[in-house]
Amino acid sequence: MKKERYLALCLLVIFLFTLVGCSKADKTDAGTSTKDSVVIAMDVESEPAAGFDPIMGWAAGEHTHDPLIQSTLLITKDDITIGYDLAKEYTISPDGLTWTFKIRSDVKFTDGVPLTAKDVAFTYNNAMKQATETDLSMLKSVEAIDDTTVVFHFNTPYSAFAYTAAVVGIVPEHAYNAATYGKNPIGSGRYILKQWDKGQQVILEANPNYYGEKAKMKKVSIVFMSEDASYAAAQGGQVDVAYTAPSYTVNPIKGYNILSFNTEDIRGLNLPTVPAGNKTPAKRNGETYPAGNNVTSHLAIRQAIACAIDRESIVKNVLNGYGSVAYSDSVNEPWENEAMKVAYDPAKAKAILEADGWKLNPEGIYEKQGLKAEFDLLYISSNSVRTGIAMAVKEMLKPVGIKVNPIGSSWDQIATLCYETPHVFGAGSHSPTGVRSHYYTGKNYASYSNPTVDTYIDEALAATSVEASYPLWKKAQWDGAAGVTPQADSPWVWLVEIKHIYFARENLNVIDKKIHPHGYGWTIINNVHQWSWK
Amino acid sequence: MNNTGSVTILQKYQRKRLNQRSQTLLVLAFGSIFLLAITVIGTLVGDIAITTNFTQKNFLPQIAHPFGTDWLGRDMLARTLKGMSISIYIGLFASVISAVIAAILGAAAATLGKKVDAVITWFIDLVMGIPHLLLLILISYAIGRGTFGVVVAVAISHWPVLTRIIRGEILQLKEANYIKIAGKLGQSKMKIVVKHMIPHVFPQFLVGLVLLFPHAILHEAALTFLGFGLPPEQPGIGIILSESMKYLSLGMWWLALFPGMVLMTTVLLFDLVGGSLRKMIDPHSAQE
Question: Any CB–CB contact under 8 A between A227 and chain B?
Fold first, then answer.
């Protein structure tokens, strides 16, 4: 009798996972026959926790993209230069501390009320008070002079602000309620939020009164799924575009093409540069996290790691070719510094360690004064690419006598641990401020601090134009004597650029020209209004 | 019994075979050796279970890799054995703790008076009243998941059944004539417990302990499968199964089938071993 019960229990476990596997597949049965709607599967992290509220970081946080529901002052064009949306023109004062925007007067929110400079001022004045991923700390105040003129006052010059103004959506002052706006946003953008079933799907409808180009796709549904569910949904024909990961490309799906987009989405490791026992600078709410790592705080270890990893092999094996090698957080961008490049050379890695006094112990691991060259490496375990990279790094550092123990977790846990333990980070944006967030004192996951680098970053931000700032951003990385290159301080080791890949129906014309920044999600539909069915 | 002089017609043509007891012994031995082998091999496998080899991705089962390889080129046989041995260790640890808790609480309930009995019985009902998996998840989550979380959760949630049995046994024993007589003859309480009670309760305890095993192992696997147990870099059997799920839609059936079968075999074997042990120790059930 008891035996049957165990058997039943065993079967239950087996059924449980087959069931979970099936249940994910039967989501939203999309009417794909209609010719002006599209269903897109995005990863679960793309669902904005705080809703579609630009003040709370929608579209403008770590993963930047067009806010769609709201309009922005400026836009980034296909070639990542700056263009205009609400703004007709903008001028910067010679000291860089005052930016004046002239905005269009013909724009209305979807409730019929015209959008004025007051709404712009309201949006920014509120957004800078919030502790979101959107960095607006350089702003002092924003004021509306008249209905179409808005003036931004800065604490410090910040030439990269144009890129921020391209992602912060403008909310209506008269209809803004911090508690409800995220769920029921009113904007002036190309689309209107029709429905949001939290944890499942978002439905957008074209804004009939949009001032710009009319949308061809009238209805856009977005479903949030894990990697395997997304694949299964495409296999079952339930979605038109499904994000996927390289390991799923081995079995193509009939009726779907694999689309691969170039990105600015870089994977790399932060290597804490200070010994254990430190603390991060306090956040606005006073929170600090433990920081520092006794092994990676050794310069030789960081330099050795940089040249001991075979990036080509990661591209080939982990990414199945859907990627390219990367040596900096700004691959092919105007501010990338060539000096960030480093050759794959395990012998050199060993030589660097030995020159620093590390000795191989009988287990084949380097040791110095009783300290083993061994550290944990965090990765987000639900993400197959990051898992693969963590495993590959472990295998590649083993032959050079550095032991890596991969530790899988979720981002909410990693966010507090990654100041002491290296993590397989994703980074990259359309703006040079990535250099600042990775290397500026007090602001980075490697606890890195170098006054020379800080000076260049300050100078770059103080430049009177974005173009004039490029050489300074380059110098911040390497000025010929000091910097963050693998041969110098090496606080981050950048590994690969990952292509964003999707299964898309063969008869769907997907238009997406802008290079993707970090973040797999919403970038794909920046141009969804131009998509069409063949 | 058969070697008495007269042989009946029924006995004459009886097939030569092992008697019940020998059969039970054989099953017990076979089961134990098999489980021991899994544990030892799994422990000795070492790093192979977590070594990735990108030149051997997604291999079907073959001679070099009887269970195939996964999307990172890890050998599934090594992972399964490693995972199973981790599960067995956790099961062993958790069942021992559970059994010890059960012994202490059971004895306390039976001997320390009505109030203590009421409290302990209430706790038994409480723990048994909550759906077991839910309780496991709650405890593991509260303690912060990971190996520690799963061990504690499994260990402190499996005691009620055994506690009940031990409590019942002792209550029954207290009323037994030979215990009462021993008392009247002036034996000390300590001596009665050591000499007369423990030998009677111990077999129940031992069998209960072994039969906790399959429960503990399955629950550890389930908890890990649901993401509340072992960390994802550990080759736990629950991790292997939940990872394999992601690739089932790609048609990689071997990732789930073999580890699942090994888990099932292990659990059934433990049950078999426990059942055999009971037959050996408890004369009443020996010929069932």
Answer: yes
d(CA A231, CA A253): 9
One digit per residue, pLDDT tens: chain A, 534 residues?
455 566 556 555 555 555 544 444 444 444 444 578 999 999 988 898 889 999 998 988 778 888 999 999 999 888 778 889 999 999 999 888 999 999 999 999 999 999 999 999 999 999 988 877 788 888 999 999 999 999 999 998 888 898 899 999 999 999 999 899 999 999 999 999 999 999 899 999 999 999 988 899 999 999 999 888 999 999 999 999 999 999 898 888 999 999 999 888 999 999 999 999 998 888 777 788 999 999 999 999 999 999 999 999 999 999 999 999 999 988 888 888 989 999 999 999 999 999 999 999 999 999 999 999 999 999 998 888 999 999 999 999 999 999 999 999 988 889 899 999 999 999 888 788 889 889 999 878 999 999 999 999 999 988 877 788 889 999 999 998 899 999 999 999 999 999 999 999 999 999 888 888 888 889 899 889 999 998
Contact criterion met (CB < 8 Å) for A317 and B264: no
**CA nearest A380: which of A255, A267, A253, A524?**
A267
Binary contact (A10, B218; C-beta < 8 A): yes
CATH H-level, domain B21-40+68-287: superfamily: MetI-like (1.10.3720.10)
Which chain A residues contact residue B57 at CB under 8 A?
317
Residue spans per domain, chain B: 21-40+68-287
ipTM of the complex model: 0.79
Chain B residues closer than 8 Å to A394 by CB: 52
**Helix B237-248 / helix A2-23 crossing angle, nearest 10 deg:** 40
Q: State whether residue A111 is helix, strand or coil.
A: coil
Measured between CA atoms, the residue of chain A closest to residue B217 is: A10
Task: Please count the residue pairs, one from chain A and one from chain B, whose beta carbons lie less than 8 angstroms apart.
Answer: 90
Residue B212: closest C-alpha in chain A: A6
In whole angstroms, how far apart are CA A158 and each of A97, A149, A448?
8, 20, 22
B275 contacts A313? CB cut-off 8 A:
no
Residues A393 and A268: their CA atoms lie apart, in Å, by: 11
Note whether B57 contacts A384, CB cutoff 8 Å: no
